[in-house]
Write a structure and sequence with these properties.
The chain has one domain. The termini are far apart. It is 64% helix and 0% strand. It has 92 residues and is an all-alpha fold. Helix 1 packs antiparallel against helix 2 and helix 2 packs antiparallel against helix 3.
Length: 92
């Protein structure tokens, strides 16, 4: 896989998980959009990391791997956390 194909695959993978998360989030209440997207991005990170581990991909390849996609999805999931309204989850 060439570098440009690797980058294209990497971007498509991240956009796919964003689309799945956003599609699932818009059917619920508006307060749960960010938590749902963050959860789906985290799920995507776990799935990509498991696939990379089971297929024994090397961390230090010249092109982007599933490990890189997992790290990017986890980073995006974590960056969404400050935008979650914690009062929605407060027990009354």
């Amino acid at each position: 896989m060439t570098a440009s194909e690797s980058i294209r695959w990497w971007i498509h993978s991240i956009l796919l998980w964003l689309a799945i998360g956003f599609s699932a989030a818009v059917v619920g209440p508006s307060q749960l959009i960010m938590p749902a997207i963050s959860s789906f991005l985290f799920l995507g990170a776990i799935i990509n990391a498991l696939i990379a581990a089971f297929t024994r991909q090397d961390f230090n390849e010249d092109t982007l791997t599933r490990w890189d996609v997992a790290a990017a999805l986890y980073l995006l999931s974590t960056l969404l956390l400050p935008f979650i309204d914690r009062s929605v989850f407060a027990v009354k």
